[in-house]
Amino acid sequence: MIVSPRRTVFALALAALVLSAPSSSAQDYPSHPVRIIVPFGAGGPADVYSRVLAQHLSDALGQSFVVEDRPGAGSVIGTDAVAKSAPDGYTLLAMSNTHTTNETLIPNRPFQLMRDFVPVAGINYSDLVMVIHPSLPAQDLREFIAYAKSRPGELNYASSGAGTPYHMAAELFKAMSGTDLVHVPHKASGEARNSVIGGHVQMMFDAITTMAPNVRAGQVRALGTSAARRSTVLPDIPTIAEAGVPGYESTIWLGIMAPAGTPTAIVDKLNSEIGKVLDRGDVQEAWDKQGAVPLKMTPAEFDRYLRSDIEKWAHAIKVSGAQAQ
Known about the structure:
CATH architecture of the largest domain: 3-Layer(aba) Sandwich
Mean pLDDT: 91
Order of helices and strands: HEHEHEHHEHEHEHEHEHEHHEH
Number of domains: 2
Low-confidence stretches: 9-24
Distance between the termini: 69 Å
CATH class of the largest domain: Alpha Beta
Shape: globular
Structural class: alpha/beta
Number of helices: 13
């Protein structure tokens, strides 16, 4: 069959148009406001740092990045809303190690993290701090462990819900310290924090970025921080590992994902712009004072990080016997 020159030119032009479409969409992106869904309560680290990110992205890209808190069901409600959104880069998910934990802890979720989302970028990570209400007689971690062991099942710990870093840090502590503590889940980390400060619940693990001011104000007593090294924010507080539970380590980290099928060019553009925010000197200085460390990675590196974290917490859940409750 003989193909006419006119038809050949048309076919080549059509192919060029198709090939250039993703690049063009990335160049034009964003052309209207972008939502960042935070599936946690207001005032927690994901909410706070998503707003920092949103402000800088709005300034850099000339469109509003709007943070929308949708807490509930251990992050499942807000996350599912993003999973069902159009994969066009205009609805993003602010996520944490709650999500990698829930892959094992909550098997009946309506989504799968690595199937229904694509990694975009990390945001930051920070230590947790274990705090108790000052009315408890324990002055340090060893005293608290002894006190808890003498009262199995009588002491409660607060968290912002099943699968959250606060919940899993406490379950890991229980398993490694041999204590029997009762989980009291709350709808948001702010509610959990207020329960401990008010003396309604005896203890919790909280992000050092949000709890440090309460420690300094004497509203709670800090017994240990969760990383391998002491925090620069609370340098007088020993790590949990050095204070009485050798080998203990747990952190909270945050990142951004998008619905599966989001064009690679848009994912790469977002990753680049988020990386520029993380490189800003003023951002790094502010976060350093709060105890947060930028978590800068390419989408491929973040993908590997997520898969590794899923495996890590699957093992921790098996060892600790933690349950969604």
